[in-house]
Each structure stands twice: as C-alpha cells, then as structure tokens.
Amino acid sequence: MGPVKASPQSQLRLLELADLDAELARLDHRRRSLPEVDELARLETRASELKDEIVVTETELGDLAREQGRAERDVEQVRTRIDRDRARLDAGQVSAARELATLQSEIESLRRRQGDLEEIVLELMERREGLVSSRDELTTERDRLGTEMSEMADRRDAAFTEIDEQAGKASEQRRGVAAEVPADLLKLYEQIRDARGVGAAVLRAGRCEGCHVTLSKVDLNQIRTSAPDEVLRCEECRRILVRTPESGL
Question: What pTM value is reported for the model?
C-alpha cells in the first residue's frame, strides 16, 4: 500500500473508530470473563461430582441390601432348625442319652450361630443407615445446587443480554463511522488494528496516546511541516497518529 492521504476530518473519524473498537473489545472481554460464567462452571463440576457420588452410594446400598437379605435368610434358617430341634426335645422324641446330648449341643451351637448372624445383620443395618443418611445429604445438596445453578444461569444470561445489547449499539455506531472513512484509510486502519489491537491514536501534548511515548523534537518538527492530509504513523508503535488542537504542535 502506497502513502495514504486523507482530510483532517477523515483522520479524526479514526479516533471515533478506535474508541468504539476499544469499547467492543472491553465488552468482549467482559463477556468472556463474567464471574457468573466461572461460578456456573464450578457449580456444574460439583453437580457432576454429586451425581457420581450418588450413583456410588446407591450401588453400595443395593449391594448392602442383597448382603443383608442373605444374612437375614441365614438367621431365619438357623432359627427354624433351632425351633425344630427344640420341638423334638419338648415332644420327648429323643430318649437316648447320647442322642439327647448331641441334640442339645447342636441347639447351643445353632444359638451361637444365630447370635453371630444377628450381629452381622445389625452391623449391616447400621451401615445401611449411614449410607442412607449420606445419600440423603448428597441428594439435598444436589437439589440445592440445582437451584443455585438455575439462578446463576439466569444472572449470566441477563448479563449476556445487557452486554450483547451494548455491543450491538457500538457495532452499529462503528458501521456508521466506518462508512464515512475513505476506503484506503480504513484499510490501513484495519490492518494496524489487527496487528496492534488499536489502529489509531491521538497525538496529545507531543505524546502518542497509543504507546504513551513522547515524540522527539525532530519528529515533532517533521509533523509540524507535514501537510494536513498526510497520514502520520508513530515511529514507536506504528499506529496512525491523529493530530488535534491538543497535539501541542
């Protein structure tokens, strides 16, 4: 691209473009860094963890229920054998001393077995009670988290709507300003903006407001003698340098 020339009025329009571009960049950054977005992501992570924890707890409860069922059936089987042996004794069906002693010994052994099994059932019941309590706590937290996530999503969406409305207005203004800038000047501005983030800066009191570097006397003298339609570039940051009454020339 050869040397670009433009009227002072057209160059001043670049400052409006730069301000609007800065506003659009600020809005984009705000949209991407909303605290509600990070907080919602944190809540969603915790909700996923809770889902997994609840599944694990429910699985453990299922396994425990089956184990408790087997233990209770074992208790019932032992109790049935005790009742049957007890009934034989009470009915006088065993008369031989040796057989009587064997039957009584079996009953005592079965009672000890019953006691052991009942202890196992009690332990399983206590474990189940603890797991049910944990599951209920997890479920309560999950439900509370769901409410928080819904509220946070509403807040995020409201912020998005506000930002998008502001960005829409700024974009519309930018289109209007850009339409009044000569094509070659706008092309140069856009190229610099893509490379530097900001395409134009004002020269204020002898300082480039783009890179905040004060120009040398030699550079300022060259600017003073340049034609008003000459498009200047900052030697330090290469942005378009726009002259105004505040430039100190």
Answer: 0.70
